[in-house]
Design brief:
By secondary structure, the protein is an alpha+beta fold. The chain has one domain: Aspartate Aminotransferase, domain 1 (Alpha-Beta Complex). Strands 1-2-3-4-8-5 form a six-stranded antiparallel sheet. The chain has a two-stranded antiparallel ribbon with strand order 6-7. It contains three helices and eight strands.
């Protein structure tokens, strides 16, 4: 993981630290953050944010700056997995994506 990925993981860890069931694991070539046993977000090595959403919410958010359907290896994922370019992840944007992932994954 290069410097951008490490910095993004540090930012995610800080923003999610209040979640009582926070877990952090290496998965999908990323540093993945889970709450309640569910994957929320991940920091890819190049500083790209991996976000897990509902299919409907992911499809609606694909048009946001820097967002696109994630590709893992040779597989293009569905709309519930988005990659967001690190270049657009100022503090407000990162908080937006974390909130969206929390909303979709902890609602049930």
């Amino acid at each position: 993981m290069d410097t951008a990925g490490i910095e993004l993981a540090d930012r995610l860890r800080a923003l999610l630290s209040s979640q009582p069931t926070l877990e952090e694991k290496r998965m999908f070539g990323s540093r993945v953050f889970m709450v309640g046993g569910r994957i929320l977000v991940g920091a890819r090595g190049d500083g790209t944010l991996l976000v897990r959403l509902s299919d409907e919410h992911g499809a609606a958010l694909q048009g946001r700056p820097g967002a696109r359907i994630a590709v893992m290896g040779a597989r293009t994922m569905g709309p519930s997995w988005l990659d967001v370019d690190g270049a657009v992840l100022d503090d407000d944007a990162l908080a937006f994506w974390i909130d969206a992932a929390l909303e979709d994954n902890l609602a049930s």
